[in-house]
Amino acid sequence: GAGVSQSPSNKVTEKGKDVELRCDPISGHTALYWYRQSLGQGLEFLIYFQGNSAPDKSGLPSDRFSAERTGGSVSTLTIQRTQQEDSAVYLCASSLVGTSGANVLTFGAGSRLTVL
Amino acid sequence: GEDVEQSLFLSVREGDSSVINCTYTDSSSTYLYWYKQEPGAGLQLLTYIFSNMDMKQDQRLTVLLNKKDKHLSLRIADTQTGDSAIYFCAENGGGTSYGKLTFGQGTILTVHP
């Protein structure tokens, strides 16, 4: 598609429920990223997929968080047993990563998660 | 690990210059970036600079890089109310960290008429 598409744009859930957030990257982009944006926390790296390599999961805050990327395209971020501190905007980005040159990320508009 | 720091707030008058500062710790950074986020939107790339350069100019934007001090700045000339947004600096490391971008906390720029 023309840009990075994320859904839902807004999600309100109850504490303890599971949620799934979806990201549709730009066609042909080999890399896909999830970041979390909270008030006062800036932009926090969660996970990074690059081609067929094992994902860099070093930013996932707990084992309640997981992500997958199917067929090198669409990605789903799953948060199990949501807690109030999970409330944030979850941003997805994609890029065409080579071995040199600038790595320009294109971001989606984000999914705002509110846990009551 | 990598760390990127920014001041949180900047307030300027319309027509003045704005300077947003950023420091980073990763000495193997290859590129450094400035992104802009308007309310309710994702981040958009403004400009980037290769780590071997010390300055880059793009219309009203000037990026200065002091690699020795690991200090990056973004100057916006003739700041307009439409420039009010959050500005993020970011860096990508070298080697196996090349693909991953680390962002600062963002600087909220407020432009007063």
Question: What is the gist of this entry?
Answer:
Chain A has strands spanning 5-7, 10-13, 19-24, 31-38, 42-50, 65-69, 75-79, 88-95, 106-107, 111-115. By secondary structure, chain A is an all-beta fold.
Question: Can you tell me about this structure?
Answer:
- The complex is a heterodimer of chains A (about 120) and B (about 110).
- Chain A is an all-beta fold.
- Helix content of chain A is about 0%, strand content about 45%.
- In chain A, strands 2, 4, 5, 8, 9 and 10 form a 6-stranded mixed beta sheet that branches. Chain A has a 4-stranded antiparallel beta sheet with strand order 1-3-7-6, with no helix packed on it.
- In chain A, a hairpin with a 3-residue loop joins strand 4 (about 30-40) and strand 5 (about 40-50).
- Chain A is globular.
- The model of chain A has no long low-confidence stretch (mean pLDDT about 90).
- Chain B is built from no helices and 11 strands.
- The model of chain B has no long low-confidence stretch (mean pLDDT about 90).
- Chain B has strands at about 5, 10-15, 20-25, 30-35, 45-50, 55-60, 60-65, 70-75, 85-90, 100-105, 105-110.
- Chain B is mainly beta.
- In chain B, strands 2, 4, 5, 9, 10 and 11 form a 6-stranded mixed beta sheet that branches.
- The interface between A and B is medium-sized, with 26 and 22 residues.
Kindly list the characteristics that best describe this protein.
heterodimer, A: 116 residues, mainly beta, 6-stranded mixed β-sheet, 4-stranded antiparallel β-sheet, 47% strand, B: 113 residues, 5-stranded antiparallel β-sheet, 11 strands, globular
From the alpha-carbon coordinates, what is the Rg of chain B to the nearest angstrom? Answer: 14 Å
The residue ranges of chain B in which pLDDT falls below 50 over 5 or more consecutive positions are: none
Order of helices and strands of chain A: EEEEEEEEEE
* Range of helix content of chain B: under 10%
